[in-house]
Every structure is written in C-alpha cells, then in structure tokens.
Amino acid sequence: MSTADRLIESTQDLLWERGYVGTSPKAIQQRAGAGQGSMYHHFSGKPDLALAAIRRTAEQMRATAEACFSASGTAYDRIRAYLLREREVLRGCPIGRLTMDPDIIADPELREPVTETLDWLRARLAQIVAEGVERGEFDAGLDPERTAASVVATIQGGYVVARAAGSTAPFDAAVQGLLDLLATRAPRRPAP
Amino acid sequence: MSTADRLIESTQDLLWERGYVGTSPKAIQQRAGAGQGSMYHHFSGKPDLALAAIRRTAEQMRATAEACFSASGTAYDRIRAYLLREREVLRGCPIGRLTMDPDIIADPELREPVTETLDWLRARLAQIVAEGVERGEFDAGLDPERTAASVVATIQGGYVVARAAGSTAPFDAAVQGLLDLLATRAPRRPAP
DNA sequence: GTCTATATTCGGATAGAC
DNA sequence: GTCTATCCGAATATAGAC
User: Fold this and answer.
1) Is the pLDDT of residue A191 over 70?
2) A160–B156: do the CB atoms touch at under 8 Å?
C-alpha cells in the first residue's frame, strides 16, 4: 500500500476514534509510519487529508449499506437485514460522529460527504419502503419518508446510547423495538 | 451570579457547542469574563470544571424530561409530548454528544453522569410504556424496554441526521415516523 | 479571590537538504 | 518522495504578587 493510502487509512481510523478536533497531524503520521515531510508532500494539510479520508469512509459505508438493500426478499426483510447487519456498535458510526464535530460542520467542503451520505441513506430506505407499500408488503398507511428517517435515526441514536452505556444492549433493544413496530405493519402477503 | 457559576455555565455552553476536546480553559475564561487565576482558584483544572458543568446539564435535562413524563394523559400522550417538546434540534443533545468525546468516555468520573442520564431516561420511558400496557392504553404485545430504547435512540439519532442535513426536517420526520408506528399500538380505550 | 508572569508541551505548518 | 530543522501560537497549567 502506498504512503498516501496509509495516511488516508490512518486518518480514517483516527477520525472515527477521536473526531476531527481530536486528531493531530502528528498522530496520523505516527500511525501511518510516515514522516512530516511525507504527509505534507501528499496532502496540503490536515483538512485536505481529512477530506480524502471522509470521502473514502463515506464510499465504503454506502457500499456496505447497498449490499443489504439490494439483497433479495421483501422490503421488510431488507430493512431488517440492514438493521441487524454486523456492526462495531461501540465504535459508533464513522460518518454520524462527524456531525458533532464543529470544525467539520462549519466547513462546507468537509461537511458535504457527511450530508450527502446520510441523505442518500434516508432516500434509499424511503425508496425501499415505498416499493414495499406498492407491493402490499407494508400497510398502505406507512409513510416512506418518515419511516426511513426513523430507521436511520434509530441506528444513529443506537450508537449514542450504546456508547453511553458501554454496552451494545441498548443498541440492540432500540433496533428490536423498531423491528417489532415495523413487523406489525408488514402483513403476511396472501399467496398469488 | 458568582464567578464560579459563570464559569460553569460557560463550560456548559462550550461543551455543548464544541465538545470536551474542543473546549479550552482560555475559551471558558473569556466567555465567563474571568481570568486564569480565578478559574484555577475555583476549580482544579479543566476536568474538574467539566465535571461540574456536565452534572449541572444532566440535572437540567432530567428535570425537563420529567416535566413531560409526569404530565397528565395516557402513556402514549406523555411519550408524544416528550418527543414533540420544543428542542434546539440543530444544537444536538448536550449529553448525547459527549458520548462521541473520547476523553469523556475514557474517564469514568466524567462519563458517569452521561451513562446515568441516558440510563435513567430509558428506564423512565420503559416504566411509562409498562404502565400504558397495564392500563390497556398500549397493546399487550408492546415490549417496554425495547420501545423505550427506540424512543431514546430516535431522539438522539434525530439530532445526528438533522445536524448532517443542516435542517430540523429529518429530526421531525424520524419522530413522526416513530409516533405513527406507536399510534398503531395504542388502541382507543373503550369507555368504561 | 483575582491578576500577571512564566513554563512546558502540543498543534499545525514551512524550508530546505538528501 | 522522504527526512530533519525550525517556527509560532495555543493548550494547560504553576507561582507568586496584590
């Protein structure tokens, strides 16, 4: 792997763990096994490197989610698969956490991939719910946009309560609570 | 207001806005209109002051929530009131955001009020759901713990998606989505 | 109780040699 | 491309005068 790649990967890790404000160029260099000069040769500075790292993380997150969304099964099944997919719950969401970083939110360029990713996620879920309603897999009364927003919020908030508790239990409970509620709105489809 | 109080209040604001890592003693002093010596006279350092601030914020948050919980109405009504209560959505949750602060999570003393507050919130909501089920205000099948976890996660995650979007809309949608789902499980109670 | 001076380390970067 | 030297201001305090 190239030095630039190692720098980006180290930055991804540190942003996930400590956020933007809590991540120093020196820490990045040490984790990547690269010197100062090397870092400033490949990137113009901390914001530039952070941007590359955030973009890469966003891309990976979309790919992981899309794998669940495009699987086979009913709308409910696919949403369920997404909610229950394996996660490193106690590390939190590498994109969602950036939302609490004032320097990220204040900088339009750094913020853009964060906004973009969570917007995409909601829209994609809304699309799946809408499909489900159309096919009779969900009750007609279920609002796609609202439901999608609830799914994303449950995940993001699940990370928060899990980290507060120091345990994945509250995350799992929140997800199960939502699935219980959603299941009620997913009638067994009558055989054709 | 005393100097110590102004220092605590300034710290509350800054922790909310910038987190622990992003908040410097100097910034606190300036906002409070106090000098270095003054701050170090009243508090042993940044962690000590932060602890006082976090405890105060936690106390205020519990009081605000309890006002909704102890109001009159059915269990659904009270949960609804809590979900819809006025919030400064784009500022996020002053307690929940600390969850992403590595230095807070790593320090048991600083972390304790955060854990405590969110644990209390979930337990209190579970109690309300359980009451509702008992009184027939909610379906018998509704799991109190899971449902409570979903409510807290929806709020916490709602803040995340709202900050990402730069708009309160996703927060409101997530809350409405959850309320839609919950309403289905709250049958109109037959007149006695 | 509050102020000013001083100290140490870190954050974030530039310059120039190799 | 990578390394070392150097720079300047901020972060987080301590010491001692008033």
Assistant:
1) no
2) yes
